[in-house]
Structures are given as structure tokens and as C-alpha cells.
Amino acid sequence: GAVVSQHPSRVICKSGTSVKIECRSLDFQATTMFWYRQFPKQSLMLMATSNEGSKATYEQGVEKDKFLINHASLTLSTLTVTSAHPEDSSFYICSASGGQLRGYEQYFGPGTRLTVT
Amino acid sequence: EDKVVQSPLSLVVHEGDTVTLNCSYEVTNFRSLLWYKQEKKAPTFLFMLTSSGIEKKSGRLSSILDKKELFSILNITATQTGDSAVYLCAGAVGTSYGKLTFGQGTILTVHP
What we know:
Shape of chain A: globular
Low-confidence stretches of chain A: none
Largest sheet of chain B: 6 strands, mixed
Structural class of chain A: mainly beta
Shape of chain B: globular
Strand content of chain A: over 45%
Oligomer: heterodimer
Mean pLDDT of chain B: 92
Helix content of chain A: under 10%
Largest sheet of chain A: 7 strands, mixed
Mean pLDDT of chain A: 90
Radius of gyration of chain B: 13 Å
Helix content of chain B: under 10%
Order of helices and strands of chain B: EEEEEEEEEEE
Low-confidence stretches of chain B: none
Distance between the termini of chain B: 41 Å
């Protein structure tokens, strides 16, 4: 169990457009989902934490108007990169946690590689 | 601010060698320390350590946590080329829904 999927796995978009990335927990209810960003040869940087039905909590320095997060159900969270610019090109990874019932362990999705041209 | 520091940042060994990866942490409301292996995609879970001094093992990999010294090590014995990856450790917070703070990672390269 504990499978997390992300879609799309890879996306190329033009500067100024918006891109939506989906994160789904396939076989458990994710009370909390996390969104990370990873630049080449760097570690994962937490962008935001989202709980189902409430507003996301963003880390310092992450623009909430640029990176819109919606956690509409216990199995789906979306990250929308609005008005994308080339510097937004990165690897975006989500993780899902089943909370206390599952020992707070985070299960990672396979990631989405975003390239903004 | 929470901080996790890994060393070395990179390591090159030959097959059969034993390696030790280090992770020190300063995490407010610390609950547990996690180790992940990352190849080309997202990290895969290796260990979660909550108690001090109890070694966790999985095949050739083992890990232990020292909560007094705020430190953990990951050992890999008889390394294989398939062990080449980035190894990440992360501190988990006891509140904030289990938020993880990741270290910068150790890039391990195992040559045949």
C-alpha cells in the first residue's frame, strides 16, 4: 500500500502560462500533503503543507499567489504554477501522509519535471 | 530555523567497500529521523528512526540514531554499483503534521 501518483510526469510550457500538477494518494487517505521543489544536484525544499479542506501553509519565501495549492479531497492535491517563468523550471515532488494513523510517514510521488521555455 | 546537515556531500568508492554517511540535525520538536535513497526520480524510503541507540537494518544497510548528540549514521556494507544514488536524511517535526526538513544529501558513487 501507500502509493502516490503525480501527473504529469513531465511538462513543457511557455513563459506566462499556468501549469497544474496533480498529486494523488491511490490507496490511502492523505490527511496532509506536502509539495517540494528540487533543483539539480540540490536537496528537496519544502514549499508548502496542505491539509484537506483548509488553506495551505507556505514556507518562507514561497509566493502563495504564484504557487496555488488546493487540497480538495483526502486523495488529491493540486499545485498550479501561475504565470510560469523559466526560473520556475524545476522538479516538483509531492508527498502524502496518512497522519497519526500511519505514523506520520510520508510517501513520495514520482515527481513532475517542469520546463518553462 | 530547523537545520539538517549531511556529510560528506559526495563519496566515491569501489564495489565491496563499506561506507558511512553522516547526518546531524537541529529540529524543533523533533520526532524522528528518516533516511531516503534518491536515484533519478523521487526519494524512496529507507529507515525511520525514533529511538536512540536502536539499530535498524535492511540487508546491507543499517542506521542508528543518537538523540543526545543529534546525530544519525547510515552504513552500507559491501557496496554495489546499484547503491549509487543520493542519500537524503530528514528530520521530522512532532507537530506541524510531520513536516520534514531535508539535508542537502550525500552523492554516493560506487565504481565496479
